[in-house]
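Hi R.,

Here's the chain you asked about this morning:
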Amino acid sequence: MSEADERREHEDPAAPPPPDLAESLRDIGSTAKASLGAAADSARAFRTLVAADLSLARSALGRALTFAGVAVVFGASAWLFLMATLVALLRSFGISWLVSMLIAAGLSLVVTVYAGLRAAHYFEYTRMQATRRQLARLGIGELADLMPTPDSAESARAAAQDLRQDAEKLKNSGNGTHITPP
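And here is the predicted structure, written out as tokens:
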């Protein structure tokens, strides 16, 4: 008895025959087309979402800048009134005009220096250091030649710290452009 005969004996006679190869390939093709169509629909929906989000952000940025401007104007005028009140108070205590104005100016200068230092501190976060390190490891960006490759065991953070300490390497990238340290 052959192997094919043995298979026929064990098969259920009521079971449908196996599908034809051409029919199976058509099914796979139609499934692939449906998947591609769903991916395209998802991409269009995502594009619409991003466009709407950017539009909302643009509108909100304009309004935020308007109100920030109003806040700066009224904050500055309030600060001037406070300094005038301080000078008048110091003057009522018998302190000369010159010393009263110097005290008010000194207080303003201390607040200005503090705010400037804090602004410089927060501007450091705008450099996106971690993202730049990872992009450099992938070979993208101005630091790509200076950072370890993705398959390297060397830490990107340690390499960036070494680069910051040896700032001479960062002066020129070889084509005359200045490279900002990570």
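One quick note: Helices lie at 3-10, 21-92, 97-123, 129-137, 156-165.

Cheers,
M.
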